[in-house]
Amino acid sequence: MAIRFLTDSTSDITPEEARARGIFLVPMEVSFGDVSYRDNYDITHEEFYEKLVRAKTLPTTSQPAPADFLPFFEEAKEKGDTLICLLISAALSGTVQSAILAKEICQYESIYIIDSKEAIVGLRMLVDLGFRLLEEGKSAEEIVAELESAKTRVRLFALVDTLEYLHKGGRLSAATAVVGTILKVKPLVTLKNGELAVLGKGRGVKDAIRTLLSLAGDDLHADPRLPVYYGYSRDKSLCEELRAAVEEKYAPKGSPLYSIGAVIGTHVGPGGAVFGYLER
User: Fold this and answer.
1) How many CB atoms lie within 10 A of CB 144?
2) Does 248 have pLDDT greater than 70?
């Protein structure tokens, strides 16, 4: 009888990493026209962005079905394990609802389903925190309670290289996108109440990073158990510049750069960069 973790592919935890850490990983799907791919299983992040930049319309993304969760739930039930599921924000996807339906079908009570209100590195850091709490000897109930509290303290700040994908996704008007592109505006975004929200904008990369750090505040009070996390969509260069600025201002302990997958990448496009941390 063990405590296991399950997450979905928007955590950007790779299948190889999941196997090494004993994480159950449920993939989301991305579709270009009539062709669907399981994120990071049938299509790599690199292949996804290559297709994205050539696509005339945005691909669609779809949540896992209850049947995608059932093999993991049934395995936990058979072994008597407790399963803690950390999933993409319910405001962005119906993944949480699919997991709830799968639990009802499985009829096993030792499954905890958490709407993380997050995705990408925000979701990853909650999975990492879950492992830290497990290493500290916490019970499943204590881990779930702390994760429910921690998800309200995740802070994510990002900048987007182009307005094109926010426009295609219906978050910006065509006029705003055209003018912004001419002026080389870089949108600044976050996940707020589980949804993608625009914080502001910067003129060019240096102004965008300076403005983003201003929005983040003068102090970074990160939980000492976790580093600052960084993510990028396709091209690392903007993320590396952002990380350098964050380290210069705050001097925090940082993590590697993590590639952002298809679901969030569809809306931010290539060249995006994010940093996030868990507020203590």
Assistant:
1) 20
2) yes
